[in-house]
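Q: I'm writing up a methods section and want to include an example of the input and output format. Could you take the sequence below and give the corresponding predicted structure tokens, formatted cleanly so I can copy it straight into the document?
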Amino acid sequence: MRYAIISDIHANLEALDAVRKEIGELCPDRIVCLGDIVGYGANPEECVSIVINEGWPTILGNHDAAIIDPPQMEMMNTVARAALEWTAANLSDSSIKFLASLPMTMSLNSNSIAAHGLPHKPEQWLYSDDPYAVLASFRALPQKTLFMGHLHFAHSYKYAPSEEKLFLCQLPESVDLSLERNLVNVGSVGQPRDEDHRACLVIYDDAVHTAVYHRVQYDTIEAAKKIVAAGLPNILAQRLFLGR
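A: Here is the clean output for your methods example:
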């Protein structure tokens, strides 16, 4: 089976529409979303509606969680908190109810598991830039392949259990999943931070054991204009052009 795996849409409708078009051309068997549909961008209601209407299996992200549990906003920086407060005021009750229904993890098949943050402790929203936490995730879970988002940075780890070693690959074009165990961070649709401003997604093929990254151009100017017009922090518009 071929899966299109996306994460961190962050209310960027232009990026999501471009990714949907790309996915349509790639013709995967299944599309899954690893969370953070909302936050930062100017079209949260539209992006949640697309995810609902498309019927994509979706995981809860930390920005999604902060909408349904506002005290979690206090743990975020000033810019993220301002965007979430605006988002909460611009989401319908049905969209908030949908976010509240999302699970913390998802099994794609018997050999893989996905979460927004590191999947061994999904409720802690751990990032994959901490190799000790990544190692703990491999040790705690039996699945051969782990998928996540959250960091907005496309990268992967290979784990050699016999040596207790991790091998990091930053900005890979594809990942060979046939040997060792792997963690694949699928990057971000709506706000990449790996110095490539294009939207990012991964096609995971469990028959040939590969995860292939795809980058997609979108109307960055329009997405940025909407952020400014909404009165959201200007840095959220600037980031779209910088990819960081």
